[in-house]
Amino acid sequence: MNQALLNSMTAAERRLVAETSRDAMADLDEEELLALHARIRRARSKYVSVYRRKASGAVVKRGGRGFSYPKNQRDRGKAEVFETALASVSREVGVRASQSAAELKASRLAAARSGSSGPSRAKPRAASATKPASRPRGAKETTGGLKKDASTRAVGARRQAKRDSR
User: Fold this and answer.
1) Cβ count near 63 (within 10 Å)
2) pLDDT per position in the chain (166 positions), as tens?
3) Which end of the chain is more exposed for a tag (fewer CB within 10 A), N or C?
4) What are the Cα distances from residue 51, in Å, to 45, 60, 70, 83?
5) Helix 73-114 to helix 11-18 angle, to the nearest 10 degrees?
6) Rg of the chain on CA atoms, in Å
């Protein structure tokens, strides 16, 4: 990166760029990487919009895009620095996400091989906490919730009614 441009940044901006080095990102978990990604993206968007706003105003003032291009170099450079930083953080987020997906898949396969139906709970919850009283008698507890279960049943009923009417 251009050292003169880095030196022209504020201390907070330099710290933000420094957080995107490989060594600094090695200690971060996936959630912290996503938070860093959001901060970098905000900074990049800020300088892209500042650059575009100044450039569009300078076109009329200077008489053309070509004449206004060199006058807005600092904001354009900052946007490029943050774009490069965002790319490196995005790459690292992708690596960590694929690692955690592989770990989750391996744990699910291991659970399936051992015969358990899912992750075991430390202590059983009370019967009133696990199944609400308003749940229909034949409905099973799923991850989708009551509304999704009802929607699925309604779609199936409509499909069957359509077949029956033929």
Assistant:
1) 10
2) 677 777 788 889 989 999 999 999 988 888 899 999 999 999 999 988 888 888 887 777 777 777 777 777 888 888 899 999 999 999 999 999 999 899 999 999 998 888 765 555 555 555 555 555 555 555 555 566 777 778 888 898 999 998 888 8
3) C
4) 10, 15, 12, 13
5) 40
6) 27
Task: Say how far apart CA 101 and CA 94 lie, in whole Å.
Answer: 10
| Residue 158 near residue 152 (C-beta atoms within 8 A) | no
C-alpha span between 66 and 69 (Å, rounded): 5
Of 91, 69, 76, residue with least CA distance to 2: 76
72: tokens are: 């807005």
CA distance 100 to 26: 15
Cα 9 to Cα 78: distance, rounded to the nearest angstrom: 8
Residue 139: predicted pLDDT = 54
| Phi, psi of 90, deg, nearest 5 | -60, -40
